[in-house]
């Protein structure tokens, strides 16, 4: 195990990508909650500014979740392409990819 880790014969990212995805989702969610709390705390001073921050926090949190998902899917696709090229998988017609 140590030999394959040092020699880069196998990749570690495909095995931990789901954990990384969940950690990033928690980071985005906590950031969104903090932004919403800050926006709600500003309601007393400036309603329009607080409303703008609240909308930005909700939209930003949603976009953060989408971007995390797209990024993780891109990493997974990269490793699937690598596996297909290295292992010589073929199409259904017998042609090489």
UniProtKB/TrEMBL annotation:
Spans traversing the lipid bilayer: 20-43, 50-72
InterPro entries: DUF4282
Organism: Roseospira navarrensis
Highest taxon of the lineage: Bacteria
UniProt name for this protein: DUF4282 domain-containing protein
Keywords of this entry: Membrane, Transmembrane, Transmembrane helix
UniProt entry tagged with the keyword Membrane: yes
Organism classification: Bacteria, Pseudomonadati, Pseudomonadota, Alphaproteobacteria, Rhodospirillales
């Amino acid at each position: 195990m140590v030999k394959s880790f040092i020699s880069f014969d196998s990749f570690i990212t495909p095995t931990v990508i789901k954990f990384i995805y969940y950690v990033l989702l928690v980071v985005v969610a906590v950031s969104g909650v903090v932004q919403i709390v800050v926006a709600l705390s500003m309601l007393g001073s400036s309603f329009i500014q607080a409303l703008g921050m609240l909308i930005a926090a909700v939209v930003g949190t949603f976009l953060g979740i989408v971007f995390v998902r797209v990024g993780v899917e891109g990493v997974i696709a990269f490793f699937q392409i690598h596996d297909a090229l290295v292992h010589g998988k073929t199409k259904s017609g017998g042609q090489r990819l």
